[in-house]
Each structure stands twice: as structure tokens, then as C-alpha cells.
Amino acid sequence: MIVKATTPSTQLLARHYVKNQRPNKSIAFFADQQTAAYGKGGRPFYAPKNTGLYFSLVLPPRLSPQLANIGLFTTGVAVAIRRALHTFYPYHDFRLKWVNDLYIEQQKVAGILNELIFCPALDQSCCVLGIGINLTTTTFPTKLQSVARAIDPNGSVDRNRLAAALLDQLTYTIFHYQDGRLLTDYRAHSLLIGHCVRVVMNHTVILGTVITIDDHARLVIEDDQHRFHHLASGDVTKIIF
Asked: BPL/LPL catalytic domain location, by residue (predicted)?
């Protein structure tokens, strides 16, 4: 484990490690603050000092998911994060927004980023898993104030204990995501199932009702022509409750 007081991005630290070392075991990079954190699609992630939990986990090739299984892995990771958070905040109803965000009601409290990074020394790819959680953040940039929130802005939590619980849950996921057992939990806490959504995928817009998350972790949408779409990727840009 490597811990920094501040860094542009734990994900960048982890990527640099993969490209310049020979990862043969998992290693986590934590930071108290990130000044240039990013999420899916390179979008900025607000990571101020002292109020969140931010880390990136490098998995060696033998533990890294194959590209074909990345959806199952990402949904499994979301379940792992939810389980750990629920232990510390049992009074919150954490919901999972396909495929890589955690919400309380209609506001984001945590994000997940999976990147497969090629390691020249091993001639294989390693998974770099980034996690960002808003624990007690009370002030957000203007453009985020309506869409993001803290889990408990007036509370406190032992971040070391929470980090340990997260890593324990992630370890379980690494060895069990392929058997699909985590999907039942994912579906049960989905933010989207039963709701109308707008999804953008490869410059195509799909409107419809989310029917389920299938056994390959794809989002299943029925449009107004009663056609079914099984989406392996895409951005849900609007949810109609």
C-alpha cells in the first residue's frame, strides 16, 4: 500500500506503476486529496482534502478480468463497495446506477473506474481499479451541487477501517465475480430497473424502460416499439422517476 497526502490522481500513480514495474501482486494507492482526479470518459472527479476516500488498486495479470468479463467485474465491484459502505452506514439505502456509480436517492456518492493497462515488462495487461467516495464533503463545485452529495456530511468515519473493509470486499469480488452470484445483489439494489432512461452509446441515443440487468451484466431496455436492447456500455444521461 502506498499513501499520499495529495496527488493529481491515484489512477495516474497506478498507471505509471503498471507501465514501469512488474506487478506480481495487488497494490493499492491511496490519497487524502486528488487535484486532477478523473472518472469514466476522463470526466473530472471532485476529490477534496480530508472528506473522501480515494484509491486505485492494481491487479496483476493473473487476477485481472478479461475484456469479455469487464461488465461482470465492474458490477461485482459496485456490489463490493455497497456492502462495505452499508456496514458503516446501515441507515442509507445505497443504489447502484449501471454500471459504475453509487447513489443515495438521486445523487451520486461514489464512482468506480476500471482500466486495463498494458504492462511492457510482463507483456500483459493489468486492471487498474479506481474508487472515489464522498464521505463528508459539504461543498461541491456549482455544476455538481445538484448531482452529487456526501454520504454523511455531519458525521465521521474511521477511514482506515473503511478502507480495510473495502479491500476485503474487493478481494471476495476478484474471486467470485465470474460465477454471477453478485448479480442478484446488484439487481436488488439497482437504481434503474423499472425506470425510463435515456442512454447514449456510440453517438446513438436509446430511450426506453430498464427491464433488468442480464447475466452478462448488460443493461436490458425495452423501447417504445417493444424492441429489446442489451447494452454492454453506454452513459445513462437521464432517469425518469
From this structure: 1-178
pLDDT tens, 138-159?
Answer: 899 999 999 999 999 988 899 9
Tens of pLDDT, residues 3-17? 999 999 999 999 999
Per-position DSSP letters for the chain, written without gaps between them: -EEES-BS-HHHHHHHHHHHS---S-EEEEES-BSS-B-GGG-B--B-TTSEEEEEEEE-TTTSPPGGGHHHHHHHHHHHHHHHHHHH-TTS-EEEETTTEEEETTEEEEEEEEEEEEETTTTEEEEEEEEEEESS-----GGGTTTB--S-TT----HHHHHHHHHHHHHHHHHHGGGTHHHHHHHHTBSSTTSEEEEEETTEEEEEEEEEE-TTS-EEEE-TTS-EEEESS-EEEEEE-
Are the CB atoms for 17 and 60 separated by under 8 Å?
Answer: no
pTM of the model: 0.95
Longest dimension (CA), the chain: 53
| 79 residue type, one letter | V
Cell matching residue 171: 478481494
CA distances from 131 to 181, 204, 213, 231 (A): 22, 28, 22, 23
Task: Assign residue 159 a region (left: φ > 0; alpha: ψ between -120 and 50; beta: otherwise).
Answer: alpha
Question: DSSP string of 78-105?
Answer: HHHHHHHHHHH-TTS-EEEETTTEEEET
